[in-house]
Amino acid sequence: MHELGLAQEALDVALATAQRQGARRIVAMHLRIGGLSGVVPEALRFALETITAGTPAEGARILMERVIPFCRCEACGGEYEVVDCSYACPMCGDTRGRLSRGKELDLVSLEVA
Amino acid sequence: MCDHCGCTLVDDHHHDHDHTHDHTHDHHHGQPETDSRVLAVRQSLLSRNDRLAERNRGVFMAHGITAVNIMSSPGSGKTALLERTLTDGADRYRMGVLVGDLATENDARRMRAKGVKAIQITTGTACHLDAHMVHHALEQLDLNAMELVFIENVGNLVCPASFDLGEALRVVVMAVTEGEDKPLKYPVIFHDASLVLINKLDLADAVEFRREEALANIRHVAPRAEVFEVSARTGQGMEAWYQWLEGRMARKKSAVS
Cβ–Cβ of A111/B223 closer than 8 Å? Predict the structure, then answer.
């Protein structure tokens, strides 16, 4: 995916938020990455560590929370993990489950000083 | 706007968080850091694109336009399929086209040769279209004269899936020459499609296309998608594609009225 572009977006939002709140430094960034978001967390971390250099977010701890994709079955109501992009419900076999989580790509919070 | 919960109230409201705190206190999380505090952000990194996509969606709806995002790998025959659609649909639908490519205006020229207004989006290095590019391209279309706009995405089965353009419908085109397991290799883009068009049907025998296997694979990763087998070259199967489009255009019209 476009980890560098996403990292830039995360940094832009982070710096704007920090500035609005009168913070001098961003000490940590908490991101939430869904398993089906298409993002490789390590690549995003690498991109962030690269572009934060020289900014108030330089050296910030990058916290990556990973969300395991889960589906809710429309036929039997059960919740199940999506493994290998298979949407088949392990309880009843129906294949039309709706994703309840797993596509997140969020900047959750910042720790600032 | 409150940075803790995103609401527009400024004073005297409470947040339900994992722990309680109020606006006036600094507090510490994790490793001790002098005077550090946590700011909740809770913003999607795709929200900029998503906001513009919703704006595009609103523009389409306001003009009664059904927008179709057509995605595939390079060489699946997207452009030929659209050329055929524009030819067959000339007296049936009022159409416009947006085409995305890294370079050249070739595809837009091919569309214009069919008598349809087409805007080429040359992305330079971007491997997908995004809502911002579509937003600007729409400014060049006479939207009042259209009811169906095709957006031919950049040939790429990975990245376009992640970028909402404001379309009503997503179609993935896959040629018989690409291999029956293509859907299994690119599950995300197939899963998001309302319709999968298996193209180049006229070549199926030549490549010994295993039809049942391909259909089973599509069903596995995209159980909700309809599937039509077509040949843009011979016209075989194309009427089903037109009927499908008409059904969705009609649905939209009745929803609006």
Answer: no
Q: First and final CA of chain A: distance in angstroms? A: 32
How many other CB atoms sit within 10 Å of the CB of residue A39? 24
Q: How far apart are CA B49 and CA B47, in angstroms?
A: 5
Under 8 Å between Cβ of A91 and A16: no
Residue A50 has pLDDT above 90, yes or no: yes
pTM of the model: 0.81
Give the closest residue to A28 by CA, choosing from A43, A5, A45, A41.
A45
Q: What is the DSSP string of B24-58?
A: T-----SS--TT-EEEEEEEETTHHHHHHHHHHHH
Cα–Cα dist A66/A105, whole Å = 10
Phi, psi angle pair for B169, to nearest 5°: -135, 145
ipTM of the modeled complex: 0.88
Question: B81 to chain A, minimum CA–CA distance in Å?
Answer: 27
